[in-house]
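We give this protein:

***
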Amino acid sequence: MSGHYFEFRNVWKSFDENAVLKDVSFFVDQGETAVIMGRSGVGKSVSLKLLLGFLEPDEGRIIVEGQDVTGWSEEQFADVRRRVTMVFQAGALFDSLTVAENVAFPLLSRGGRPDWEAIDRRVQELLEMLEVADLADHLPADLSTGTKRAVAIARALANNPDAILYDEPTTMVDPLMALHTSELIARLKEKFHKTSIVVTHDTHLGKKLADRVIFLHEGRVAFFGTWRELERSENPVLRNFLRQDELIPALDATA
């Protein structure tokens, strides 16, 4: 068994004739936060879906907590998904449940007789931690995109998973909410030290969170290392990516 919590070994994935991932290898150690970066359509989100068995690789091996999960059945992946939770870009909340009920849902789906007092305590603790306690009785339709994401993160933490996967947590929100969301995730990282993978093209978020960076370009790993090493890289693709993102706040300021 390797010491890595997540590992891709020479993974290939195509959709029709379009090869999205080409011979991709990387690892994430326990307690680390890895950030997968790159432009749109380079397979960042596909990587998360492969880890949880929502997609299967065409070639290569996928390792979760030292176990080769390549080709596992839905039933086998059910156990993985209890230990590894994902915060989807759209939040994926249940429309008919309140904020508090959404956060409680993973605790109720464990089976057995629910301990309502313990569940209420856990939900309240999480809602306070994510700064959405005053919205406990609201439905998702009443919430902004950024707030939905905070609730989705609270729900992901409910069952105390070993690892969390975040899919573009700061997209589709205004710059202030993006900053707020990145601060929340950074605080959770400091508090819990859970193994995490954050898919993003937001370099500000990446710099704040990354113990390790996986940069995908044209389906391949163009860079794998620390943020400091990324900033020192002479690779023109990486330099252009970092430089372009640095310009965005300046352009916003003049808008």
